[in-house]
Amino acid sequence: MAASSVGHENWSSRSAFILAAVGSAVGLGNMWRFPAEAGENGGGAFVLFYIFCVLLIGLPVLLSEVLIGRHGQANAPESVRRLARDSNASGGWGFIGSIGVFAAFLILSFYCVVGGWVVYYIGIFAGDLFQTGLTGGAFEGRAAEDVEGLLPGLFGNGAMMVGLNLGFLAATMFFVARGVSSGIEWVAVYLMPLFFLLFLGITIYGAFTGNFGDAVAYLFTFDFSKLTPAVMLAAVGQAFFSLSLGVAGMMTYGAYANRETNLGHTSGIIAGADTAVALLAGLAIFPIVFAAGLSASIGPGLMFQSLPIAFQAMPFGSLIGLAFFIMIFFAALTSSVSLLEAPTAWTYERFKITRPLATVIVGLGAAVLGVLSALSFNTLGEFYPLGFIPLFAETNFFDTLDGVTAKLFMPIGAILTCIFVGWIADARLIDNENGLDGGLHLLWRVLVRFVCPIVLTVILVMGLLA
Ligand code: TRP
Q1: Ligand 1 atom 4: the closest Cα is on which residue?
Q2: Which atom of ligand 1 is nearest to the CA of 274?
Q3: Rounded to whole angstroms, how far apart are CA atoms 464 and 466?
Q4: Alpha helix locations (H) across 376-396?
Q5: Average pLDDT of 319-324?
Q6: C-alpha to C-alpha distance for 356 and 226, rounded to whole angstroms
Q7: Which of 236, 405, 430, 462 could be disulfide-bonded to 229 (CB atoms 3.0-4.6 Å)?
Q8: Is 145 exposed, middle or buried (0-12, 13-18, 19+ CB in 10 A)?
Q9: Where do the domains of the chain lie, and which CATH numbers do they carry?
Q10: pTM of this prediction?
Q11: DSSP state of 135
Q12: From ligand 1's centre to the CA of 34, what distance in Å?
């Protein structure tokens, strides 16, 4: 069995681990990216295939990742290496962890840009609350186009975009620098329960006021002709993004779990909570979109443009808007913290430097890429880094990072993880640790060994060629 790293930290309890992992999973991916992807990929076909991906691919991969981490008790590349060595396989398998750490770093850089938009809207609604008072709707007396224009307005302001991005990144760095129990766990334990409280309140409110029936029809009507290879790849990518998979995030969190934690059950809770929040977010956002007569397929602007319009007509609109964006901020912060933790844990263990120093080094790197992403909405709008590849033609820096990580790194990382856990790692080591018994255990083995790698490879190849 692998020895713990010097100074290796652990979660203080099983529920702390669950809250941190759910905190990592639930974030902008659920509230902002899921509705946008669903809208851009035709609604129902995407959503149902997404649920299929979570159950058949996401869940088995999630269990595999936390298992690798818990066995290794170290940063992601080192954990994979230790499990490989303990299985008499080559330590070279550690490269799965290495690519993952790199991809997490890339995601962090653009994730904090969107985190900055959330902070902007908190400011907007707070200012509006101050102006219009408690009971009225938000932005009283302003035209809907005006409210919709808030986001393009922000996009046009490069300095503001960069400032907000760096502010959000700095907040993330603050908590990661404080360490596992007093930083990462602290945000999860205090912010996630608050998030769920606000989220339930707002969803129930939305269900009673918006165009709920149309949204249900849109999200759950399965039209087989709409399920193209590109839609499938988008759904797989979204499932991985939402569950924080394929890029070392969950390996890193698994490493702080103790031997007593039942990883099978825990994975089920994480995937269940994450999927519930994504679907509820869709059910909260689309009724409002349809009621306001907006298009479902506008993409990234969906959450930021449609919801503020809806809050206009609501009593207590400014207050609810403010609460909503504070809630998104909490969810986003617990996720960005996990994105920063994966590369940071590697950096400080690998180079034997302190955690705060490693946090600063990784954070500075993410700041540089983040500025390029922030500017792709204005000054660098015409800069298409991978423009020579059809899949990324006319795709700016921000969208390229998002696309490359979700459509390449995550599926490839997951395929390799399945091959490693299913075929290379010593089955006895893994079976003792996964917390599954009987039929479930067999099902998991079959999924990891055969179904996931094959289905993923087919979707990846078809999606890329399409
Ligand atoms: N899952 C998060 C979300 O839905 C994003 C995220 C956090 C993530 N950590 C990750 C994505 C690690 C990939 C890998 O917002």
Answers
A1: 29
A2: 4
A3: 6
A4: none
A5: 89
A6: 48
A7: 462
A8: exposed
A9: 14-465 (1.20.1740)
A10: 0.94
A11: S
A12: 12
**CA 71 to ligand 1 centroid distance, Å:** 22
CA dihedral 146, 149, 151, 155 (to 10 degrees): -140
- Of the candidates 63, 149, 56, which has an alpha carbon nearest to the alpha carbon of residue 425? 63
What CA–CA distance (Å, rounded) separates 463 from 408? Answer: 10
414 CA from centroid of ligand 1 (Å):
14
Beta strands in 206-319 (DSSP E): none
Q: Determine contact, residues 69/79, Cβ cutoff 8 Å.
A: yes
The number of the ligand 1 atom at minimal distance from the alpha carbon of 246 is 14
Q: Which of 339, 409, 417 to mutate to test the pocket of ligand 1 (most atoms within 8 A of CB)?
A: 339
Question: Any residues with Cβ below 6 Å from ligand 1, and which?
Answer: 24-25, 27-30, 104, 107, 241-242, 244, 247, 249, 335, 338-339
Q: Does residue 2 register a pLDDT over 70? A: no
User: pLDDT tens digit string along 197-217?
Assistant: 988 887 887 777 777 888 888
438: Cα separation from own chain's centroid: 32
The protein residue with its alpha carbon nearest to ligand 1, atom 7, reads 335
Give me the pLDDT at residue 288, please: 77
Tell me the residue type at 461. V
Structure tokens at 218: 């849109």
Average pLDDT over residues 34-42: 91
| For residue 54, pLDDT beyond 90 | yes
**For a substitution probing ligand 1, which of 33, 109, 242, 401 has the most ligand atoms within 8 Å of its CB?**
242
Contact assessment for residue 59 and residue 52, using Cβ atoms and an 8 Å cutoff: no
- Answer yes or no: is pLDDT of 147 > 50: yes
- Mean pLDDT, the chain, whole residue set: 91
Cα distance between residue 201 and residue 121, in whole Å? 19
Q: Do 434 and 441 touch, CB atoms closer than 8 A?
A: yes
Q: How far apart are CA 370 and CA 118, in angstroms?
A: 15
Of residues 163, 118, 169, the one with CA closest to residue 375: 163
- At residue 371 the predicted structure's pLDDT band, cuts being 50, 70 and 90, is very high
Cβ atoms of 249 and 108 within 8 Å: the answer is: no
Confidence of residue 7 (pLDDT cuts 50, 70, 90): low
Q: Which of 335, 401, 404 to mutate to test the pocket of ligand 1 (most atoms within 8 A of CB)?
A: 335
Tell me what percent of the chain is helix, strand and coil, each rounded to the nearest 5.
80, 0, 20
